[in-house]
C-alpha cells in the first residue's frame, strides 16, 4: 500500500491488473474504488460584507451583547494550503501536506484557493480595519494541504487528511472540517470512500462543511439537477451551495448562483445542497 489509514478500514495502493483481480476476488475486501482526482470549488464574485449579511452571520456577531465569533473553535481547512500573512497572520495552529509527490512537504499555497477559503472562514479583517473579516473571524485554523499548484488532488490525499483529523481531534479541539473541493460521484455515498471518511469525522463530533460544486448547467446551458459533487452527496455532510447576492445586503433579491450545483444527488436522489 502507498497509504494506510489509522481510522478507516482502507488503504490506497498502486496495483497491476493481476493484483487487482486478486483483490476483487478476496472475500475480505468489501469494495474497490479508483483514486479519483478532486478539485477545488470556490466563488469570488461576492464580498464578505454582503455574504455575511446574506447568510445572517452579522445577526450573531457581538453587538452590545454576547455573540459568536468562532473563538475557541478550530477549523481544519483541507485545501491547497494557506498563506499565513495579513488577515491570516497567526491563525494557523498546525500545517501539513498530504500530497505524496511533494518531496519537500511544502504547505505553501501555490494555487491560492486555500488562502481564499481560509480568509472567508477566519480572516481577521486587519488589512481593512475589520470591514472584510471572515465569517468566524476569531477561529483557529489547521492548514491541511491536499491540492497542488493547479488545484488538483486525489481521494487518497483527502482521506489521509481526514484520517489525521480524527487522530488529532483532541489535541487541536477540531470542531469543523472544511472541504471546498470535490469530484463527480461514481457510486452511491454508501460505497464512496470519500463519503465514508467524512462520515467517520461526523461520527466523532465534527461538522463536515463541503462544497456542493460548480456544476449547474450542461454544455448546452440547460440546468443540470444532479450536479452535487462527492463528498457533498453524503447525508451527514453540511453541503453548501453558492448564492448570488445581487450586490446588496438584503435577502429578498438573493438567488442561487448560476454555476452552483443542485440536487437531487446522483445515484441516491437525496435533496442537496443543505
What does it look like?
This protein is of the alpha/beta class and 274 residues long. It is 20% helix and 18% strand. It contains 6 helices and 13 strands. It has helices at 17-25, 48-54, 113-122, 155-167, 169-172, 193-203, and strands at 3-4, 11-12, 37-40, 74-79, 92-97, 140-145, 152-154, 174-179, 181-182, 207-211, 238-240, 243-244, 255-256. The strands form 4 sheets. The protein has a 6-stranded parallel beta sheet, sandwiched between helices. It starts with a strand and ends in an 18-residue tail after the last strand.
Major sheet: arrangement of strands: 5-6-4-8-10-11
Terminal-residue CA separation: 36 Å
The main pleated sheet reads as: 6 strands, parallel
Radius of gyration: 19 Å
Give helix and strand order, one letter per element, not per position: EEHEHEEHEEHHEEHEEEE
Note poorly predicted spans.
none
**Helix content estimate:** 10-25%
Number of strands: 13
Q: List the total number of helices.
A: 6
Strand content: 15-25%
What's the topology here?
Layout lengths: L2 E2 L6 E2 L4 H9 L11 E4 L7 H7 L19 E6 L12 E6 L15 H10 L17 E6 L6 E3 H13 L1 H4 L1 E6 L1 E2 L10 H11 L3 E5 L26 E3 L2 E2 L10 E2 L18
Parallel strand pairs: 4-6, 4-8, 5-6, 8-10, 10-11
Antiparallel strand pairs: 1-2, 3-7, 3-9, 12-13
Helix pairs in contact: 4-6
Amino acid at each position: 500500500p502507498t497509504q494506510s489509514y489509522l481510522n478507516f478500514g482502507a488503504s490506497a495502493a498502486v496495483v497491476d491488473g493481476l493484483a487487482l483481480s486478486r483483490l476483487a476476488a478476496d472475500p475480505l475486501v468489501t469494495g474497490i474504488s479508483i483514486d479519483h482526482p478532486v478539485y477545488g470549488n470556490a466563488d469570488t464574485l461576492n464580498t464578505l460584507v454582503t455574504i455575511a449579511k446574506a447568510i445572517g452571520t452579522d445577526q450573531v456577531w457581538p453587538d452590545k451583547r454576547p455573540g459568536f465569533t468562532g473563538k475557541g473553535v478550530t477549523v481544519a481547512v483541507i485545501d491547497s494550503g494557506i498563506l499565513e500573512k495579513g488577515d491570516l497572520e497567526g491563525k494557523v495552529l498546525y500545517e501539513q501536506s498530504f500530497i505524496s509527490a511533494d518531496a519537500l512537504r511544502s504547505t505553501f499555497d501555490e494555487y491560492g484557493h486555500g488562502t481564499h477559503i481560509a480568509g472567508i472562514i477566519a480572516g481577521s479583517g486587519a488589512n481593512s480595519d475589520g470591514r472584510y473579516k471572515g465569517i468566524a473571524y476569531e477561529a483557529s485554523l489547521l492548514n491541511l494541504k491536499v491540492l497542488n499548484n493547479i488545484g488538483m488532488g486525489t481521494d487518497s490525499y483527502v482521506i489521509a487528511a481526514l484520517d489525521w483529523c480524527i487522530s488529532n481531534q483532541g489535541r487541536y479541539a477540531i470542531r469543523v472540517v472544511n472541504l471546498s473541493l470535490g469530484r463527480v460521484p461514481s457510486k452511491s455515498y454508501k460505497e464512496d470512500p470519500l463519503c465514508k471518511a467524512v462520515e467517520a469525522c461526523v461520527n466523532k463530533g465534527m461538522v463536515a462543511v463541503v462544497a456542493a460544486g460548480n456544476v449547474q448547467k450542461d454544455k448546452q446551458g440547460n440546468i443540470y439537477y444532479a450536479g452535487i459533487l462527492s463528498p457533498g452527496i453524503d447525508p451527514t455532510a453540511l453541503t453548501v451551495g453558492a448564492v448570488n447576492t445581487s450586490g446588496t445586503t438584503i435577502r429578498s433579491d438573493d438567488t442561487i448562483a448560476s454555476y452552483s450545483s443542485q440536487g437531487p444527488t446522483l445515484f441516491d436522489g437525496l435533496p442537496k445542497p443543505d
